[in-house]
Hints:
Elements: E1 6-8, H1 34-51, H2 56-60, E2 63-72, E3 75-79, H3 89-96, E4 98-114, E5 117-128, E6 133-146, E7 149-157, H4 166-188, H5 192-196, E8 199-207, E9 210-214, H6 225-232, E10 236-247, E11 251-261, E12 267-280, E13 283-291, E14 296-297
Parallel strand pairs: 1-3, 2-7, 8-13
Antiparallel strand pairs: 2-3, 4-5, 5-6, 6-7, 8-9, 10-11, 11-12, 12-13, 12-14
Amino acid sequence: MHRMGVLRGAVALAFLAQGAIGGAQVRDADARDAAAEAAAKQALDAFITEWNTADDANLRQALHFPFVSVPGGGALVIDSRPEDFSQGFDQMQAGEGWHRSSFDFDSYTVVKSSPDKVHAEIGFSRYRADGTRYLSSRVFYILTKRDDRWGVQLRTGAASPADLDTDERAEIVSRARQAVLDFFTAFNAGDADGTLETLNYPHIFMTAGRFAVAEDAGDGPRPNFDQMRQRENWHMSTIDALNASIVTRNKVHMELTFTRWHPNGTRYWTVPALWIVTRAGEHWGIQVRSLMPATFDARQ
């Protein structure tokens, strides 16, 4: 197995059993949550305002913890507590001449939204003290609502390299797609070890109101197929949709929808999700899974 990452501070390395994710909220497949999207936009406004104070203590107020950064290459930075987080403003000022940053709210794009979670992209720029802009790019955020407050819980770059040509992009997407397909192949074979081999570590799993981290394969998330068969009468799972959105040389965002089925051929659970697949060395593995509310849930 491959794992690269930094876990700062104590973090509970506990995973929900794959067959017992919890009572899913049911939403229409095309539903969007306008109130959540507006609240997430306000949370990003608060984030960039606190960012420009160049004070970690202020910026922490705009985050939820554990807070995750996904630089790619199989690496994760996980700050489990507010006191673990540091943006490194001194280094940015000394190394880049950074003075302030801005978001392009005209480019605020919501990928998925629910009452408690929003996946969104936005453009940003960095400026020196003389007002010159020296960097512009895009960033992806997962914003969550906890204790009636919206905050940023995960961030990662969202811009494809300028020199990424069509053939290279297709090869990268093919490798990331295969990691997802391999997961489902192992899952449907009842091969728990096989599913773990498709992951990169540390591994993040997020549902509505739940956040779990596994530092290595020993922490999970290990599917319990016997439990799924007994509790849900699970027979198999299928991928209904699988598309790459953000593509870089060492990280691909896969937007997917999957369904679980009973032995008699009836579906009982359908869920849209984002899986971030990363390259750690030569291993393409699933490193972040963020599930949105179910679009269909007939579980008892």
